[in-house]
Design a protein that fits this description.
eight-stranded mixed β-sheet; 19% strand; alpha/beta; single chain; 8 helices; 32% helix; Aminopeptidase
Length: 311
């Protein structure tokens, strides 16, 4: 349903200028601690993984250093698996699911894979529980060359330095951990419509877990293996009456496709053979915070087990 954006900032139909963006930024507040909930947990993993800083967000370099965790026992002939979380900072289980995987399951696969885990690409967004960064930019539409989003730009530079960017050394897999929440419709899509001066189109929020494959290399059997493992933990999102999830046609149960590179999505950054974006629904009456974290971990292990069975 299309309707004029009704938002507390700006004039409906008129895109924001810098004044409105600054007004929006001034309304944001710190609600949780990146230091306590992410950095301290990574520090506790230093005996098992190499924790490396790849940059700092320019908004506050001391408060927002950026980290990856890498396998200590790195061997060049092992396939490399990339896990990303917190591209959208408000999507909590993506961040905590990436960390939980390192804490609880990664050890089972260390002889088969080299791991690179970036648990929180958007720490300012994590602390303020936001989809955007302080410049009112959605990082997950800006994973492009010379990106205007620092979160995306610094991550791209890291990938390039290690030879993992698209066109360089191929990774075997990339798991990009996300959530779809009720606040997508109540806050973030209205804010987007107001910022861009466009009509608002809300979508049906699916109750359950689903994945987004890359149109260029969907690897449907891999996506289904992820779904099957997650279903042991939580329920899978059904299609709506139009056979869609968030406006995209369902290709298999719990699976939709996006053209990730053209949309500037994190999942389109590499030439990984197997790529999936997970989407957990934390607002379901059947979900808990812990269940959502476990679903993210199950998505990774289900995908890894599938890959091992192909070798």
């Amino acid at each position: 349903m299309m309707k004029p954006a009704n938002y507390s900032i700006g004039t409906p139909g008129k895109p924001w200028e810098q004044t409105e963006k600054q007004q929006w930024k001034m309304q944001q507040t710190i609600k949780r601690s990146y230091q306590q909930e992410v950095i301290n947990k990574l520090d506790s993993l230093k005996q098992q993984f190499n924790i490396e800083q790849y940059g700092s967000l320019p908004y506050d370099e001391q408060r927002y250093p950026l980290f990856i965790a890498k396998s200590k026992s790195w061997l060049q002939d092992r396939p490399v698996v990339l896990v990303t979380g917190g591209v959208h900072g408000y999507e909590t289980s993506g961040v905590q699911g990436a960390i939980r995987f390192l804490e609880s399951e990664a050890h089972r696969y260390l002889k088969q894979f080299n791991f690179v885990v970036a648990p929180c690409l958007s720490p300012w967004g994590y602390e303020t529980i936001n989809r955007w960064n302080p410049d009112a930019i959605d990082p997950n539409r800006h994973f492009v060359t010379e990106s205007s989003a620092a979160e995306a730009r610094l991550f791209i530079q890291m990938l390039q330095q290690h030879g993992w960017l698209k066109g360089q050394q191929s990774l075997i897999a990339h798991f990009d951990l996300h959530e779809t929440t009720d606040t997508d419709n109540s806050e973030f899509r209205p804010a987007l419509a107001a910022r861009d001066g466009i009509a608002l189109e809300n979508w049906h929020i699916p109750d359950g877990f689903y994945v987004v494959a890359d149109t260029a290399k969907p690897q449907l059997a891999f996506q289904q293996a992820v779904i099957n493992e997650v279903e042991k933990v939580t329920h899978i999102a059904p299609a709506d009456d139009s056979g869609c999830i968030i406006g995209s046609k369902v290709k298999a149960r719990g699976v939709i496709y996006y053209d990730k590179s053209s949309l500037g999505l994190c999942g389109g950054l590499t030439d990984a053979t197997y790529v999936t974006t997970t989407e957990v629904y934390p607002d379901s009456e059947h979900a808990t915070d812990e269940l959502c974290i476990l679903a993210q971990v199950a998505a990774i292990t289900g995908g890894l087990d599938f890959i091992l069975n192909q070798q």
